[in-house]
Amino acid sequence: MSRPMVQRPVGAAIALRDDALANALLEEWLGERRQPCSLFLDVDGTLLDIAESPDAVHVPRELCVALESLHRRLDGALALVSGRPVDSLDRLFAPLRLPSCGSHGAHWRVHAGEPLRHEAERPLPAPVRQRLQALARAHPGVLVEDKGSSVALHYRQVPDAGPPLASALRELLGEPAGAGLRLLPGKMVYEVIAHSSDKAQAIRRYLDAPPFAGRRPLFIGDDVTDEPALAMMPALGGLALSVGHLLPGASASFADAASVRAALDRAARRTSR
Ligand SMILES: [Mg+2]
């Protein structure tokens, strides 16, 4: 397909035009039956509005209906690709269970009904976990999300804690206790990770197996942690769309998560006829 020229967003008018372009590209790719696509969706900030804490997000009923319909329409080739563990995704979207990968690709399922598969995960070492807990206590309002092989520190409620947290975490990872660990910055969150997966690897894994294999990948994401996956889409003959602003590799960006939900809802209604 020919891809429209993308203008850099330098103002509200251009941002609106970029949103229209993202909508048009999504519609075109999901409606193309001769070259069906695999749809990969980040969750927080892409499908759901970001809330004060990870547990406070709202999942609109219409979104579940649209995702279920598109999952069927794409013959199962729709997956959630999230930094959350999959059991958290399952709770949020219940009773809907989709192909999902969690904790930035550390565990996943290819089909909706199958058990999770795990990368050889090692838990975050106990001394590091304790240091992170202490760091959170030193900055009241910082929320700790323990995912086993990673711990996320959310500072949305205390934005001023961001810079001191960053320098303390970099220091920790430079010590022997932090050897082999990675620091993953996100929107108002820092995550210390003991595994090597990222969302790009996770999506490549899906593309090796049916029903995802042989389809053009389409990924929508909004954050720094989505950038490797967004950036690899063009080389795979795929399409990357970002949310909020144009990220590297993305052909266009949706204005916000509400715009993504509306676009998916329209696509689901069209394809369910
Ligand atoms: Mg996100």
Automatic annotation (TrEMBL):
Any one GO MF annotation of this record: trehalose-phosphatase activity
Pathway annotation: Glycan biosynthesis; trehalose biosynthesis
Pfam family, one: Trehalose_PPase
Statement: the UniProt record of this protein carries the keyword Metal-binding: yes
InterPro entries, per database record: HAD-like_sf (IPR036412), HAD-SF_hydro_IIB (IPR006379), HAD_sf (IPR023214), OTSB-like (IPR044651), Trehalose_PPase (IPR003337)
Claim: Ribosomal protein is one of the keywords in the record: no
SUPFAM superfamilies: HAD-like (SSF56784)
Keywords tagged on the record: Hydrolase, Magnesium, Metal-binding
CC cofactor: Mg(2+)
EC number(s) recorded for this UniProt protein: 3.1.3.12
Top EC class of this enzyme: hydrolase
Catalytic reactions of this protein: alpha,alpha-trehalose 6-phosphate + H2O = alpha,alpha-trehalose + phosphate
Highest taxon in the source lineage: Bacteria
Protein role: Removes the phosphate from trehalose 6-phosphate to produce free trehalose.
Family membership noted in the UniProt record: Belongs to the trehalose phosphatase family.
Protein name per UniProt: Trehalose 6-phosphate phosphatase
Gene: otsB
